[in-house]
Design brief:
The chain is an alpha/beta fold. It has two domains: 230 residues, Rossmann fold; 127 residues, Rossmann fold (3-Layer(aba) Sandwich). It has 13 helices and 15 strands. Helix 12 crosses helix 13. It is globular. The structure holds P-hydroxybenzoic acid. P-hydroxybenzoic acid (PHB) binds next to loops.
């Protein structure tokens, strides 16, 4: 193959700000030696949304990932790390090309990404076809650790099923009988609402109506009017990022927070509370994290994240942090030699991580086994009320690990 690779066109990826942007330009040089030596830097592709409704989520995953590496002296498994950063814009249509460029042109050793389930499933396909190591630090698409599971694919976040299934039982036990659901019409929304409905109806509850709007639209008014007409006992929802901020504010502005309690997947109120203000007070959600977990790992993480970024850590930062921890476990087991893939994967699959979220291990499909907490927004924080369900393990339906 020619030593001289065509310089990439100047694009959004090269224009990203900060150190990562510089790293992108540096690795694009045609004079760079191929990374084959044992101690060459590890090339990590970060494919995340840096713009759009999930921009803050991508940024916090990125910050959390880099924080864990910094704590490790800037290395993973003894190797220096260099980054190639891609803004996937949460656009599934661009995902295959973006992933192919990271794998084919940029020759990364591992890809970490992404947030959006539809984008992630396109990445999973390329990862399977090219046997590229992929760590998913957010997207919950059930299929990624279901029918599409593979030895080279890990997730440090959750399956969509996992986060909301425990809430069905919690709401039924609280005497709630009739629920309206509302979400974006795409994989994550459908799967989170589906898992909630599965347990809620099994415990005697009834779904009165499922409301949706296309991702990433935020024109909620007509749907909020419909909720007011239907007068359910409660609403269950999934939105995240900028969309979650607007939905919670619109719901309160319509006065519905006083009459129809709002519940959701924890993404509705994680990393969003500052912007939502009092509109979020009292919202109850389930998630694999809460702001007041007092385990030493969380206390240390929140302090370090604040010192590095000036921001309060959230679930997205934790998932990025744990992605680097998992990668470090795999690479350390093989002394940085990514070619020893089988041993590296075995070490990652067996990992037991003392995560800020609590104990984290992985099932046979490489999806986290973790506690799901019931939280309530109080004083601008997602305070844990109880463990809604301990050690929740996704059923990994359809996964045949080869
Ligand atoms: C997803 O698309 O899987 C997704 C996006 C944002 C979240 C959670 C899940 O906060």
């Amino acid at each position: 193959m020619s030593e001289f690779r065509r310089l990439p066109p100047i694009s959004r990826r090269a224009l990203l700000s900060g150190a990562a942007g510089v790293a992108t330009l540096a690795v694009a040089s045609p004079f760079r030696a191929p990374a084959i030596a044992q101690h060459a830097p590890l090339r990590v592709g970060l494919m995340l949304p840096y713009t759009g409704t999930f921009a803050k989520l991508g940024k916090f995953i990125d910050d959390g990932f880099r924080l864990r590496i910094e704590q490790n002296g800037g290395k993973l498994g003894g190797r220096e790390v260099e980054f190639v950063q891609v803004d996937d814009e949460s656009k599934p249509a661009a995902a295959t090309d973006n992933m192919n460029r990271l794998v084919g042109r940029d020759k990364v050793d591992v890809v970490v990404g992404t947030v959006h389930s539809g984008v992630a499933m396109a990445m999973v396909k390329v990862a399977r076809d090219t046997n590229t190591l992929l760590i998913i630090p957010n997207a919950g698409a059930n299929d990624a650790t279901g029918p599409a599971c593979a030895p080279n694919i890990f997730r440090t976040s959750f399956s969509n099923w996992q986060t909301t299934y425990p809430m069905g039982k919690v709401m039924a036990a609280a005497g709630i009988k009739n629920v309206v659901t509302i979400t974006w019409k795409y994989t994550a929304g459908a799967e989170m609402i589906g898992a909630f409905a599965e347990s809620f109806t099994a415990n005697g509850g009834k779904i009165v109506e499922d409301l949706t709007l296309p991702f990433p639209e935020v024109e909620f008014q007509a749907l909020i009017t419909r909720i007011a007409q239907l007068k359910p006992d409660a609403v269950f929802s999934f939105f995240a990022g900028g969309g979650a901020v607007k939905f919670v504010k619109d719901y309160a502005e319509a006065g519905l927070n006083k009459t129809i309690p709002l519940y959701g997947a924890g993404f509705l109120t994680d990393g969003t509370l500052e912007a939502q203000g009092a509109a979020a007070d009292g919202i109850k959600t389930t998630l694999h994290y809460a702001d007041n977990l007092l385990n030493p790992a969380n206390v240390a993480f929140l302090k370090a994240f604040k010192a590095k970024t000036g921001n309060d850590g959230d679930i997205y930062a934790v998932q990025g942090f744990d992605a680097a921890a998992l990668l470090n476990i795999g690479l350390t087991a093989v002394k940085g030699d990514t070619h020893a893939r089988d041993r590296m994967v075995a070490a990652m699959a067996a990992a037991k991580i003392d995560s800020p979220r609590g104990p984290l291990s992985f099932n046979k499909a490489h999806n986290p086994i973790q506690n799901i907490y019931l939280r309530e927004v109080k004083n601008g924080r997602n305070e844990m009320l109880s463990i809604a369900q301990a050690d929740v393990d996704d059923p990994a339906r359809g996964c045949k690990m080869t």
